[in-house]
Write a structure and sequence with these properties.
about 475 residues; alpha/beta; Amidase signature (AS) enzymes; 2 domains; eight-stranded mixed β-sheet; about 15% strand; binds glutamine
């Protein structure tokens, strides 16, 4: 049962082959049994899941036909969910039980989705390997000595090991696409503003975007349709109708103009990954797509730009964790300053502190112009590069990551090397663009990801390209042997 896609489970439930309760029980058994080796979850919520499954079965018995009704998934622990611990991977929020639902959680609840629990993640979504989590690292199902990527490492590993057919995730600089690539699954980061950020714990508000990790583009389309839409509670959510993504997935690729990002193939790309990307491009060409090289001259500046903008926003967003209202509070504070200092000192991990300090520095008087303002200008140049490229091509395609999944511990002492793992993903966040990563083969026996980036609100097009590719290939159906 666990090997099915969301669409498959949806069909199975509709045909009465099994109930949501049976499906949920079967998946919960795997989630619990495999937790010690994968550590993909922070909270397993069996009781709530079984109650939700029973409710979904009752709704179906009463005649409701929502395609997601009774389908089990998991939520990244960055999304607030009523009555659930929502830790964001941090000691700071290790005991925080949310009194409300994030909009994404509420919408999926309304659709009848059953949540099995909350997935592990880098602390406050800051990381590329899931090693900054207060709850310990997640292991890559393809090789348990390797990282799953981050920050949505728990969601990606859970889907790769088929503990759940889909899991929510968020992407500030690559946190959906990079772990999806390293775990051999499908990840979709929508356009900034497409999915509400309400109730999604903020890291860098101008970059954060909620999305989904699945095994197929078809499933991503189904889930995006349920998650997306205008939300008056998020002032940056965009008031545009949500297309029926799943309904128009199968458009032919003839005449599709694909831009090959020159800069992505230039530096540090593992030749074994490049081979897989070139093969994928050839396959798209055989389907009638037209390839041409495109250059985005300012793209190489995206990592340094991001590491000014993101820490600046995080230093401001994380100021709310002060030990006063909720979250970790130190023992016996002497006075208010001591309360702030020790609560934050004890509650945050090293990477989060590094970002807060960098962010405070680049925003401080005297350095603001030199760093923050300059980074904002370069961000604009990068966005302009993309805009120009999309006057010539429909989508941009390249690798998602420069390397395959690396060994646990191999980069954790060197933040800059770790930051460079996001070299291909950050550009889309700086420009607010939608982007996907889909499995495109193996390099040294580990999954490689193909990245597809499109203009604002072109999710339909990205999903269509991904779906067409997945119709011709079976990389997305591969499951590590231990989890079949
Ligand atoms: N790895 C990047 C970082 O550490 C991106 C994280 C993310 O997208 N949340 O900031």
């Amino acid at each position: 049962m666990h090997l099915q896609t969301v669409a498959g489970m949806s069909a199975g439930l509709a045909a009465g082959r099994y109930s949501s309760l049976e499906l949920t029980r079967a998946l919960l058994e795997r989630v619990t049994r495999l937790q010690p080796e994968l550590n993909a979850f922070i909270s397993i919520e069996a009781e709530a899941a079984l109650a939700a499954a029973a409710a979904a079965d009752a709704r179906r018995a009463a005649g409701e036909r929502n395609p997601l009704l009774g389908v089990p998934i998991a939520h990244k622990d960055i999304f607030c969910a009523t009555g659930s611990r929502t830790s964001c991977g941090s000691k700071m929020l290790a005991n925080f039980v949310s009194p409300y639902d994030a909009t994404v959680v509420a919408k999926l609840r309304t659709a009848g989705v059953v949540s099995l629990g909350k997935t592990n993640m880098d602390e406050f979504a800051m990381g590329s390997s899931n090693e900054t989590s207060h709850f310990g690292p997640v292991r890559n199902p393809w090789d348990l000595t390797r990282v799953p990527g981050g920050s949505s490492g728990g969601s990606a590993a859970a889907v790769a090991a088929r503990l759940v057919p889909a899991a929510t995730a968020t992407d500030t600089g690559g946190s959906i696409r990079q772990p999806a690539a390293l775990c051999g699954v499908t990840g979709l980061k929508p356009t900034y503003g497409r999915v509400s950020r309400y109730g999604m714990i903020a890291f860098a508000s101008s970059l954060d975007q909620g999305g989904i990790i699945t095994t197929t583009a078809e499933d991503a389309a189904l889930l995006l349709g349920a998650m997306a839409g205008f939300d008056p509670q998020d002032s940056t959510s965009v008031e545009l109708p949500v297309p029926d993504y799943a309904a128009s997935l199968d458009q032919p690729l003839a005449g599709l103009k694909i831009g090959l990002l020159k800069e992505f193939f230039e530096q540090g790309l593992d030749p074994a990954i490049e081979t897989q990307i070139r093969a994928a491009l050839q396959l798209l060409q055989q389907q009638g797509a037209l390839l041409r090289e495109v250059s985005l001259p300012n793209l190489p500046l995206s990592v340094p730009t991001y590491y000014v903008v993101a820490p600046a926003e995080c230093s401001s967003n994380l100021a709310r964790f002060d030990g006063v209202r909720y979250g970790h509070r130190c023992e016996n504070p002497r006075d208010l300053t001591d309360l702030y200092k020790r609560s934050r000192g004890e509650g945050f991990g090293t990477e989060v502190k590094r970002r807060i300090m960098t962010g405070t520095y680049v925003l401080s008087a005297g350095y603001y112009d030199a760093y923050y303002l300059k980074a904002q200008r370069v961000r604009q140049l990068i966005a302009d590069d993309f805009r120009r490229a999309f006057t010539e091509v429909d989508v941009l395609i390249g690798p998602t990551t420069p390397t395959v999944a690396f060994e646990l511990g191999s980069k954790s002492e060197d933040p800059v090397t770790m930051y460079l793992n996001d070299i291909y993903t950050i550009g889309a966040n700086l420009a607010g663009l939608p982007a996907m990563s889909i499995p495109c083969g193996f390099a040294s026996s580990l999954p490689a990801g193909l990245q597809i980036i499109g203009p604002h609100f072109s999710e339909q097009k990205l999903l269509n390209v991904a779906h067409r590719y997945q119709r011709e290939t079976d990389w997305h159906t591969r499951v590590p042997e231990r989890y079949r």
